[in-house]
From TrEMBL:
Protein name: DUF222 domain-containing protein
Species name: Demequina muriae
Taxonomic lineage: Bacteria, Bacillati, Actinomycetota, Actinomycetes, Micrococcales
């Protein structure tokens, strides 16, 4: 496991901390804007975890102005925060994935045409 190159904020959840460690193990070269993006993704994960806890404590429902039960707003906000974090993480980690897929594709093509 790669040691984080910055101090992880105390308010980050375990999931956010583990995500940072995992991404840094795949991308130890991360710096600049990419490192900032990773921090933002971890912040979003922590927010999503907190929002999930709020929605869960309320039984995942709340009351509309007319008194009808509706899905809790915090559940939707948590889902959006997770989607945003996933998009950021996908861009950070996919750089290596594309390189690895391209290299694997070239190796397969060489093997195929070498017959």
């Amino acid at each position: 496991m790669t040691e984080p190159i910055f101090d992880l904020p105390d308010h980050w959840t375990t999931a956010a901390r583990e995500t940072v460690e995992e991404v840094l193990s795949v991308r130890p070269d991360l710096d600049g804007a990419d490192l900032g993006a990773l921090e933002q993704a971890a912040e979003l994960i922590s927010q999503a975890d907190a929002l999930r806890d709020v929605a869960s404590a309320a039984g995942w429902v709340s009351r509309s102005d007319s008194g009808a039960e509706v899905p809790h707003r915090a559940a939707a906000e948590a889902r959006q925060a997770r989607a945003s974090a996933a998009a950021i993480l996908g861009r950070l980690v996919d750089v290596n994935a594309q390189t690895d897929r391209s290299a694997a594709g070239r190796a397969l093509a060489r093997k195929r045409w070498a017959r």
